[in-house]
TrEMBL record:
<keyword id="KW-1133">Transmembrane helix</keyword>
<feature type="transmembrane region" description="Helical">
    <location>
        <begin position="170"/>
        <end position="200"/>
    </location>
</feature>
<feature type="transmembrane region" description="Helical">
    <location>
        <begin position="92"/>
        <end position="116"/>
    </location>
</feature>
<dbReference type="InterPro" id="IPR030802">
    <property type="entry name" value="Permease_MalE"/>
</dbReference>
<dbReference type="GO" id="GO:0005548">
    <property type="term" value="F:phospholipid transporter activity"/>
</dbReference>
<feature type="transmembrane region" description="Helical">
    <location>
        <begin position="60"/>
        <end position="86"/>
    </location>
</feature>
<dbReference type="GO" id="GO:0043190">
    <property type="term" value="C:ATP-binding cassette (ABC) transporter complex"/>
</dbReference>
<keyword id="KW-0812">Transmembrane</keyword>
<feature type="transmembrane region" description="Helical">
    <location>
        <begin position="220"/>
        <end position="241"/>
    </location>
</feature>
<dbReference type="Pfam" id="PF02405">
    <property type="entry name" value="MlaE"/>
</dbReference>
<keyword id="KW-0472">Membrane</keyword>
<protein>
    <submittedName>
        <fullName>ABC transporter permease</fullName>
    </submittedName>
</protein>
<feature type="transmembrane region" description="Helical">
    <location>
        <begin position="262"/>
        <end position="280"/>
    </location>
</feature>
Amino acid sequence: MSTASVVRQRFPRAVARGERLAAAPARGLDSVGHVAWFVVTAVGSMGHAVRFYRKEVLRLIAEIGMGTGAMAVIGGTVAIVGFVTLSGGSLIAIQGFSSLGNIGVEAFTGFFAALVNVRIAAPVVSGVALAATVGAGATAELGAMRISEEIDALEVMGIKSISYLVSTRLLAGFVVIIPLYAMAIIMSFLSAQVVTTFFYGQSTGTYEHYFRTFLRPDDVAWSFVQAVLIAVIVMINHCYYGFYANGGPVGVGEAVGRAMRASLISIVLVVLFASLALYGTNANFNLTV
């Protein structure tokens, strides 16, 4: 009997743990390749989805924008994103006015709202709201279809499951995010102005002067680019976890949790790297203006 066999018999758990650790790099590369294949297939099938599944794309656009069932009663994703960004803009105004007031420059609250809302708050808050509503719903829906073998049935019927289930959702998310984010950023601007001028009594002229002075069109355009990237990443991430869910209803719940964790990390990373790339060396504003 060899030494390896003796060690395996005497310490089976330690050997199994060591084998798992040794195989971790290979499993990691396999997972990366699997995700990459899924992303390439889903994105590459968008043209096929537009050609053959237009009705499904339109249905998903309506579902993502206004929701279904109880979600439609309160306005769906539009109402949720609007309320969340409204609250975020109000918090920025409250913190900005109070903090700047400590050094006697509360007049700069308009500048603070224009800077933070566009560059940080609105993309992050909108991304989190999108992941918590549309993303989690997509993971649960696709996961339920997977464990009930509906996806396998689609394949048997000759329907390209990734094109029909994933590419259509990517197209719908890409279409909806533009007006959705426009509404979100308007709500964040409006809430910050109302809190500063109505509740704190700052004159509207002072607020609008600094707000318009430091609100750069380039920042708004890049903010929309960030929102689109976040929407695409969130939809791909949630569709991936839902499409490959397993383990019954418990497995679907676990897939939703893993997808949400990955989405929250991805949203922050997109904003972080975008800020480093765009404003890491030059903040593009001058307080002496």
